Amino acid sequence: VRYLDERVNYIFSSESDTDSLIQVGRRMSDRVSQESSGAVVMAMNIGMAGWLIHEAVGPNQGTFFKFEGKKIPLSSSRIGLIQLGEGYSRDNVSSLERIETLVHEGRHSDCTGGLSQSDLQGLRLGVLPSDHACGHTHVACPEGHPLAGLMACDDHPWGAYTVGAVFSIMMSRSCENCTESEKQMAELSALDSLSRVDETIMEGSLNGEYGAPDMSSQGVRD
């Protein structure tokens, strides 16, 4: 609960108008599910995209996100603006998978290690940070993957798919109020998430090679 409180603060539907931020958000932090009809967006964290815009144009430019008549300053990567996608409300999506989606999107609120000056200069030229740990941005899934070419895979330790998978694994083992069917679905969801992570990275994360996950978030580094 504390994890989500720190990273997920505003949740709105796919019909909400998010202006230009939604375009940047799609490039950075979709959570995509694969169904028989194809890839379906579960949710997007556009708060990180908004913060990067805020940093790129300069803190004194007054960048805000308008929501229900309020102007929300985009001064932190953890502003937590989450837009639900089409897949989130589908009948075949379990409650645990919906929670995992929020856990996944919450990880996109972390700029682990901070934003370097070189990446800040790149942002001003329209280039996303080279360090994917800032925002835990996704990369294109490799050839041969069911979602090949889509920005729905991870190439670094403790990214959004790994963190979401750990949550689902724990729920499948210890949820006291879940049915056996729900626990099985949580395990399947975890396996799907882990299939989006580079195999070497995934093994290193789960066997302790990379140590405990850094769950902090920093701003621009000097």
| Overall average pLDDT | 87
**How far apart are the termini?**
32 Å
Low-confidence stretches: 20-28
The strand line-up of the biggest sheet is 1-6-3-2
Element-level helix/strand string: HEHEEHEEEHHEEHHH
If you compute it from the alpha carbons, what radius of gyration comes out, rounded to the nearest whole angstrom?
17 Å
* Class inferred from helices and paired strands: alpha+beta
Strand fraction equals 15-25%
User: Could you describe the largest sheet, including whether it forms a barrel?
Assistant: 4 strands, mixed
Number-wise, the strands total 8
Estimated helix fraction: 25-40%
User: How many alpha or pi helices?
Assistant: 8
Shape estimate: globular
Descriptive account of the structure:
The protein has 222 residues and is an alpha+beta fold. Helices cover 38% and strands 15% of the residues. It is built from eight helices and eight strands, in the order αβαββαβββααββααα. The protein has helices spanning 2-7, 21-28, 47-57, 95-107, 117-124, 160-174, 180-194, 199-206; strands spanning 10-12, 30-35, 38-45, 64-67, 70-73, 81-84, 139-140, 151-153. The protein has a four-stranded mixed beta sheet. A two-stranded antiparallel sheet has the order 4-5. A hairpin with a 2-residue loop joins strand 2 and strand 3. The longest helix is centred in the last third of the chain and has 15 residues, at 160-174. It starts with a helix and ends in a 16-residue tail after the last helix.
